[in-house]
Predict the 3D structure of the following.
Amino acid sequence: MALEPRKQPRQQRSSKVVDRILDAALVLTREQGTKAPTTLAIARRAGLSVGSVYQYFPNKEAILLDLARRWLSSFPEVIARRIEVAPPTNRDEFRQEVRKLFIDTSTLYRDNATLMPVIEAISGNADLRPIQDEYDEQIIALYAAWLQHVNPALEDEIASRLGVLMMDVGHACRLVGLKRDRKTYDLMEDDVERMWLALVTPYLNLD
């Protein structure tokens, strides 16, 4: 199955058409839950002909994969914000920073819950896994940089190892939580936050 876009938009007008297609697909995935929208439904929601959609994407799976890429690419920006502010000087301030990060990342998961089967499919497909690996490496590096922002003396190897755990534990628990009700999801979020704090705080040299 072809999963790559047929062509990349080279002009502003083409970029707007692609954005309309992806926006329509995202709205429909949120409305329809686990049922993937058809190419025809996406075209109608975007106000385009099916032929216009096929100019850029060979099928609905390619559209959903492009959405997944955009979802993955949103995480580095969210984490980078925590590095751009002054580093916390005590544990209470660090807990506040972690809470802000959890609010931002939790929103990305909840608002895009219907994309999670696509994300899981990427993880299990040897041909597609490099797409996620690329973003995983960015996220791990940013988590490590954030920890070293808080404690500049933290060794690179330790910071990277903690970054792997922060990413993998957070992602796995959220995937599980999204399959439960909202109350359970929120409780699991709180549990993951506590696990994070218990894991990294001893390395941060905070009062």
